[in-house]
């Protein structure tokens, strides 16, 4: 596993800008730190963290082209908010180009931007850590980290609520999958995760 993690760490360093690579390393560090607390395998957390943004630096047009070609457009809003589909594109690349078969890792990568109802602990971890890794610095991030350290579901719900608040305050479109994720977590139907 360590060799594989090193391979994907090197790949991320080659595919991503320095700033995004540093973010990726921050996601890896926090995800691996928190993984045992929530019953997640550290290797799975590390792999999902290192690969979650592999498709992020394609242009939106390139992402949409790949998403259409690979049948990854699931909602009309995917076309209107193209910045949300890089996770699905990265997961598909991992499966097809790099022979990653771990469904939980693929789901964590695919759903790290929007979440989904019924997220596994690994999916919740990557979703939340993407927002709260040590390099993130915005008002309220410390409170989100505290909630996440204490409880994975509560922390993930707080991260989704923060995202919804941010989108509303900035008049940005809200993807229906984010709302479904929020409702699922609010109703306590997510998978066990702390």
From TrEMBL:
<keyword id="KW-0479">Metal-binding</keyword>
<dbReference type="InterPro" id="IPR006674">
    <property type="entry name" value="HD_domain"/>
</dbReference>
<keyword id="KW-0378">Hydrolase</keyword>
<keyword id="KW-0408">Iron</keyword>
<dbReference type="GO" id="GO:0008803">
    <property type="term" value="F:bis(5'-nucleosyl)-tetraphosphatase (symmetrical) activity"/>
</dbReference>
<dbReference type="InterPro" id="IPR003607">
    <property type="entry name" value="HD/PDEase_dom"/>
</dbReference>
<feature type="domain" description="HD/PDEase">
    <location>
        <begin position="16"/>
        <end position="144"/>
    </location>
</feature>
<protein>
    <recommendedName>
        <fullName>bis(5'-nucleosyl)-tetraphosphatase (symmetrical)</fullName>
        <ecNumber>3.6.1.41</ecNumber>
    </recommendedName>
</protein>
<dbReference type="GO" id="GO:0046872">
    <property type="term" value="F:metal ion binding"/>
</dbReference>
<dbReference type="InterPro" id="IPR051094">
    <property type="entry name" value="Diverse_Catalytic_Enzymes"/>
</dbReference>
<dbReference type="Pfam" id="PF01966">
    <property type="entry name" value="HD"/>
</dbReference>
<keyword id="KW-0547">Nucleotide-binding</keyword>
<dbReference type="GO" id="GO:0000166">
    <property type="term" value="F:nucleotide binding"/>
</dbReference>
<dbReference type="InterPro" id="IPR005249">
    <property type="entry name" value="YqeK"/>
</dbReference>
């Amino acid at each position: 596993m360590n060799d594989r993690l090193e391979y994907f760490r090197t790949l991320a360093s080659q595919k991503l800008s320095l700033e995004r690579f540093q973010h990726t390393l921050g996601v890896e560090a926090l995800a691996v730190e928190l993984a045992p607390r929530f019953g997640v395998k550290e290797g799975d957390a590390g792999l999902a963290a290192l690969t979650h943004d592999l498709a992020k630096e394609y242009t939106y047009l390139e992402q949409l082209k790949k998403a259409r070609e690979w049948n990854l457009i699931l909602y009309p809003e995917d076309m209107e908010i193209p910045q949300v589909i890089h996770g699905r594109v990265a997961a598909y690349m991992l499966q097809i180009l790099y022979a990653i078969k771990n469904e939980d890792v693929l789901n964590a990568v695919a759903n790290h931007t929007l979440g989904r109802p019924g997220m596994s602990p690994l999916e919740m971890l990557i979703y939340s850590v993407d927002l709260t890794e040590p390099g993130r610095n915005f008002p309220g991030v410390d409170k989100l980290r505290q909630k996440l350290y204490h409880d994975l579901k509560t922390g993930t719900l707080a991260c989704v609520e923060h995202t919804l608040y941010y989108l509303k305050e900035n008049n940005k479109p809200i993807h229906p999958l984010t709302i479904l994720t929020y409702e699922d977590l609010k109703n306590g139907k997510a998978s066990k995760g702390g």
